[in-house]
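User: Some background: our group keeps a shared notebook of sequences we're curious about, and every so often someone picks one and asks for a predicted structure to add to the entry. Today it's my turn. The entry only has the sequence so far, pasted here. Could you supply the structure so I can complete it?
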Amino acid sequence: MSELFEYKCPNCGGAIEFDSSTQKMKCPYCDSEFVVESLKNMDNRLAEMQPDEFKWNEGSGKDEWSENDGMSVFVCKSCGGEIVGDENTAATSCPYCGNPVVMSGRLAGDLKPDFVIPFKLDDKAAKDALKAYVAKKKFAPNTFKSENRLKEIKGLYVPFWLFDSDATANVSYDATRTRTWSDSKYNYTETSHYDVFRAGTMSFENIPVDGSSKMPDDLMESIEPFHFGEAVDFQTAYLAGYLADKYDVTMEQSIGRANERIKVSCEDTLRDTVNGFGSVTTKNSFVQTSNGVAKYALYPVWILNTEYQGEKFQFGMNGQTGKIVGNIPASKAKLAALFCGLTVGLTPIIFGVGRLFGLI
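Assistant: Of course. Here's the predicted structure to add to the notebook entry:
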């Protein structure tokens, strides 16, 4: 069993956790508040520790143990209850007494994050954001807006790799300009074709790549941006009261996604400089990176799971900015009404064109 960190109030002995509204550690029992920086001694201990390592000799009990492969058991220091987490769980709470705990070995040594962006928005803000988000969706079923039920909400620190890099990009385009004119007999169209070339150098900082296989990459990228200017040096105190996972997608495994994001950004930036043409099509694109480095950080995310007519829907909210995204069902009746409205609107146009050409 691994060691757990628990933050205790020196005044009443209750479990304290990070309060996003005050950006301090707060005791929910006596309302005492503590500056996060005052708890650095515990992080100094963490820096000296090594990650968990469990070795087992193969024997007759191998098949029985495989059922729990990848799971770890921790003992809560407050009530003695067992806390079960998977191999990536870094912070959670005791299911018996509710005390927030941090799995020390999961954030030790090389697994210790460089930075963390603390939560700025609480669970009430997340619930309000979900309600407002659903209310704005015109094609959501009316019953979904009133009958979807929030089944789970959790504040989670998601591991991210942050990449810095310089890039040199070269892109060539096919572009056209079209000119039309008429005389007494004919209408003329002239299309001119151009080879357009753009090149440039760019620098990127803190390109985020989700380091957790549990979290959908498209969901995490949809709630960007996170503002790294508000990041602070990592301290375990910020995790108290929230869930957290260590990375299970390594930096090396994340480089491909970082390269892809750099390439797309370079292409988009250069494309924005190609103006004055009727059409522009990319022919070739070459991007080279250099001076690449990576940092490890934890970013705040609220995960909200709802249920509607037996189907589950997941939403993600940026715990720093409040940006929320998620999938919402579309009302077939509203879509049908939209289609009928478009059809009615197009009928006079079709009728007029038909009469013009003698078809009606």
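Suggested note for the entry: DSSP finds seven helices and 16 strands in the chain. Residues 54-68 have pLDDT under 50 and may be disordered.
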